[in-house]
Specification:
The chain contains five helices and eight strands; from the N terminus they run βαβαααβββββαβ. The protein is of the alpha+beta class. Strands 1, 2, 3, 4, 5, 6, 7 and 8 form an eight-stranded mixed β-sheet that branches.
């Protein structure tokens, strides 16, 4: 794994944005060829359209670390073959990662969770997410 991953805010090609911990992939039984997480250029357009661009720009340099060392991880019960990673920095950031069977794992969005502390606590109580230490 390269020590430094640079996320290009103007990328026109799919780019590597991090490596997800194997323990999370194993726990959710996601069958993928590797631990690499990519971001297609369409995600950049999505972030701009959905109003998440400024937040993404603020945190883009630490996204590889957020993926490798989340504070919490879980799965949207409506979307199998997905993982939601949560990182608490100045904000409560969520990084949804999906599996495309042809292209592998990819970052599908990036946003700050509104009312983050309360939502994190509720999702912990319901078992939707777990502390990263849970995954061993």
């Amino acid at each position: 794994m390269p020590s430094t991953i640079h996320i290009d805010l103007n990328a026109t090609d799919t780019q590597l944005v991090g490596y997800i911990p194997k323990s999370i992939i194993d726990y959710y039984s996601i069958e993928c060829a590797g631990l690499e997480v990519y971001m297609p250029p369409g995600v950049l357009k999505h972030l701009k359209k959905r109003g998440h661009w400024d937040d993404f720009v603020t945190y883009h340099t630490v996204i590889p670390d957020m993926i490798a060392n989340p504070d919490y991880a879980g799965q949207n019960p409506k979307e199998l073959n997905t993982v939601e990673l949560y990182k608490v920095v100045n904000d409560h950031v969520i990084l949804p990662i999906k599996l495309n069977e042809k292209n592998g794992l990819f970052l599908s969005s990036f946003f700050i969770l509104d009312n983050g502390p309360n939502k994190i606590q509720r999702r912990l109580r319901t078992g939707r997410i777990y502390s990263f230490s849970f995954f061993g």
